[in-house]
Design goal:
Strand content: 35-45%
Helix content: 10-25%
Radius of gyration: 30 Å
Number of helices: 2
Order of helices and strands: HHEEEEEEEE
Strand order of the largest sheet: 1-2-3-4-5-6-7-8
Amino acid sequence: MKQRIFLIAAAACGLAACSSEPEVYEYEINDPMADELAKAEAVDPATVPMGVGSDDYRCKGSNQLLKIDWIRTGEQMTARVTPQGERGMQLTQQGDGGPYTNEDGTVTMTGSPTSNSVVLNGATCEA
């Protein structure tokens, strides 16, 4: 009997806590950069890097696996080449449709985001 009274009392308390009116919370969003961003110049879309494609390639002979991310910034094409287990390197295309090379010219690559194969330092690698 005591348990039944306790359950009835607990249920009554629970129902009393319910309200049919929704609670509304008001808050102010504080953006510390709002003024600075409002005064900033517009960004030229040609200066923003855009991912054009990404694929994995397996090289013949060495059986090395490459991950290549193709990136376009305006008219400039770059390829981020990451051999498996090594650090990535950035290769930039020289001229329109020319080969991709690193800064010191020791690594060269030919290919494009739409091709099924690339040639990296003389080794043919296929997607």
